[in-house]
Amino acid sequence: xxxxxxxxxxxxxxxxxxxxxxxxxxxxxxxxxxxxxxxxxxxxxxxxxxxxxxxxxxxxxxxxxxxxxxxxxxxxxxxxxxxxxxxxxxxxxxxxxxxxxxxxxxxxxxxxxxxxxxxxxxxxxxxxxxxxxxxxxxxxxxxxxxxxxxxxxxxxxxxxxxxxxxxxxxxxxxxxxxxxxxxxxxxxxxxxxxxxxxxxxxxxxxxxxxxxxxxxxxxxxxxxxx
Length: 226
Ligand code: ADP
Ligand code: MG
Fold this sequence. Notes:
By secondary structure, the chain is of the alpha/beta class. The protein folds into two domains: 1-86 and 164-226, Rossmann fold (3-Layer(aba) Sandwich), CATH 3.40.50; 96-161, no CATH class. The protein is 31% helix and 23% strand. The protein has six helices and ten strands, in the order E-E-E-H-E-E-E-H-H-H-E-H-E-H-E-E. The protein has helices spanning 52-60, 102-112, 117-130, 146-158, 176-192, 204-210, and strands spanning 12-19, 29-36, 41-45, 67-72, 75-76, 87-90, 164-168, 197-201, 213-218, 221-223. Strands 6-7-8-3-9-10 form a six-stranded mixed β-sheet, sandwiched between helices. A four-stranded antiparallel β-sheet has the order 2-1-4-5, covered by helices on one side. The relative contact order is 0.21. It binds adenosine-5'-diphosphate and magnesium ion. Adenosine-5'-diphosphate binds at residues 21, 24, 28, 46, 48-54. Adenosine-5'-diphosphate binds next to helix 1.
């Protein structure tokens, strides 16, 4: 399944990635190349429709690229199924399990991985503490505010310790004040956990606040390439 790891290569590498949707005249993602070092948070900043979500979908494996490669730590993962990549994804609207409690949402991925209950509860407690939601442990997620919901979504995605976290406009559905506060918290959480992450956003201030490096995306292309 995995190819040998090239020496010295760590983190994510995207090489000449192109996605052309069936029937489309222009590629949604056009010959994109960039790298993300381990522990780094990189923002992909660009206007609506420039191909950000398509690029994330191709990296995580929801969309198969037309050409190009995605590799991690030197291993080509372009054809690897989603669940074998060890990547996590957070959407704009969280997409929580509506009938589970906060703790139930955080535990989901750990249950799938068959983590024993004692360990699982410990990990859920750690995560609740990390995102400041300890008092909401047994709360139904339907009763949470938008900001609290996104904290749950972030914690849930971090639960299985993904080697790469992809965040697709995670703060866009929140109002300005909350967005600013959660942006600060998000940066702290990603730094504390040493998470390697890509943040997709159309908001320059959010990109600057959360990421250590900002790449600009326009009409399917990412600049500067490297
Ligand atoms: P962004 O996330 O930056 O707003 P998207 O990746 O969603 O951009 O979209 C990039 C382009 O691809 C747009 O022109 C959009 O209409 C098109 N597109 C997105 N998803 C699909 C799809 N499933 N099928 C066909 N075209 C799509
Ligand atoms: Mg999008």
